[in-house]
Amino acid sequence: MNFLFLILFMGLSSPAFTQTPKVKFLPKDFRASDYEKYSLKKKFPKEIETQVLTALSFYPQLLDTRIKFRFKKRKTPLTSRPRIMHVFLPKKWRTYVITISSETTESFAPILFSQLPYNAQIGVLGHEIAHILDYRAQTSFQLIGLGFKLGKPSFVDRFEFETDKRAVTQGLGYQLLDWSSFVRKALGIIEWKGATQALETGNVPETNQRYMNPETIKKYMAQNPIYNIN
Hints:
Helix 3 packs across helix 4 and helix 4 packs antiparallel against helix 6. By secondary structure, this protein is of the alpha/beta class. A 4-stranded mixed β-sheet has the order 1-2-4-3, with helices on one face. It has helices spanning 3-12, 32-35, 49-56, 118-136, 140-149, 153-187, 214-222, and strands spanning 42-43, 66-72, 78-82, 95-101. Helix content is 41%, strand content 9%.
C-alpha cells in the first residue's frame, strides 16, 4: 500500500460526521460560506436557511441527496418521507420531503417549529434528516414494507427512538437535548413513555420512550467520545 493510497483510504474510513458537536448554535454565528456545499440539491424556505444548513452539515452522507423542506398545515409538527412516486425510483434519483407544520391543533401548538428555540429547531430538523439517512439505504420494497409497519405503535416507538440515536451519533446530541427538554416542558410531560403508557414508571424500556427523554439523550452522549462528556 503506497503512501498516497494510505492517505486516501484513511479519508474514506474517517467518521461520518464532519461538523463538531456544539452545545449551542446562534444565528449570529452562521457564515453562509461555511455551509454552501450543504445546499446542493436542497430546497428550503429562505427564512429557515441557517437552521436547515446547520442541521445538514452533520450529514455529509446526504450531500448528493435531493431533499425539499416545506411549510404546510399539518397536525404533526414535522414529518419526513420520500416523494410517493419516488419510492419506486433508484435510490440516487429519489427526492425526500420534510414537511414543517405551519398550523396545527391546539394541543400541539406550543411545540410548532416556529415556537422552538433556535438550537432546538436545529435538533428537530436533525431528527427528520436522520430519517432520510435511513430511507435512503432502503430498497423500494423495504420502503413499502416500512409504510405498513408504521401502523403499529410499538414499531413506531422503536423507529423514532433509533432515529434519535442516529441523530446523537451524527453529532446533534446537544440540539436534540434542547428540543426534547423544550417539548416536555411545553406539553407538561415529565417522561415520554411512547405507546406503552400503562407500564409503571421505572418499568418502561428505553425503546418504549418513542422520542428519547433528556436523561436518555445525555446517557448516549456520555457513551460517545465525540462529546467528551465525563
